[in-house]
Amino acid sequence: MLFDDIRMLKDNKKVITTDTLQAELLTEAGKKHGIYSSTIFTPRLKEVAKELKNLEGVTIRKANKTITCMFRPTQKFMNKISDIFSDDTKFQRLTRNTEEDLTPKENKTITAINARRVSVHFAKLQVTFYGLGYDYGNVKAHKLGNPLRPVISQIPTPTYHLAKRLNELLTQYTPSNYSLQSSADFLEIIKTTQPDGIIASLDVESLFTSVPVDNTIEMKLDRVHKNIRTR
């Protein structure tokens, strides 16, 4: 609601905003800023939310690309998740938990990198509990059959913090000439430039699990070795 109000002010040329405003507002909305009482989320709505959450046989998930929620029979929801993981071209079934193997292997690699005394430093893993990643699916309410958009969280895994550190280092080498932060940026370009021609949208099914990993790593390393940074 706040974003809509600000956008209206922007359209009337009363305020100037940044491209990341919507993302920043969403981030702040998820934080706790002291004690407050919402005039929208009334006590009665809170009671109803708890009742819905405790319903057996029903799964409530956030719809993809929207703030609405979807109600689905749990069994049907689990069947869709199973269908996604049954694709052995993208997923491999393991017979045991490999987390115990990853921690010492990762620390050994980090020690070897840090010993080179380069400017890049990696923090070693602490001796603590790590777990498996987990999957949850957001319902694509705008598509026929309401398929799921699988989201795999790696936060509990031993490789999570290393991945974050690598992301920080490699992002500066990621080409950004033809990339946009959001669809709002795209709409703003269309409104302001009014380009000629035909605009087409290409949809890739299962984008992230279809990306050729080895080729992507080779291209990224090539840019790093040539020191081709994003301007």
DSSP helix fraction: 40-55%
* Secondary structure: number of strands: 4
End-to-end Cα distance, whole Å, is 35 Å
The fraction of residues assigned to DSSP E strands is 5-15%
Order of strands across the main sheet: 1-2
Can you lay out the helices and strands and say which pair or pack?
Elements: H1 2-11, H2 21-29, H3 43-53, E1 58-62, E2 69-73, H4 74-85, H5 99-114, E3 134-139, E4 148-153, H6 160-171, H7 183-193, H8 207-210, H9 213-225
Antiparallel strand pairs: 1-2, 3-4
Kindly describe this structure:
This protein has 231 residues and is mainly α. The chain contains 9 helices and 4 strands; from the N terminus they run αααββααββαααα. The protein has helices at residues 2-11, 21-29, 43-53, 74-85, 99-114, 160-171, 183-193, 207-210, 213-225; strands at residues 58-62, 69-73, 134-139, 148-153. It has a two-stranded antiparallel sheet. A two-stranded antiparallel ribbon has the order 3-4. A hairpin with a 6-residue loop joins β1 (58-62) and β2 (69-73). The chain is globular. The two termini are 35 Å apart.
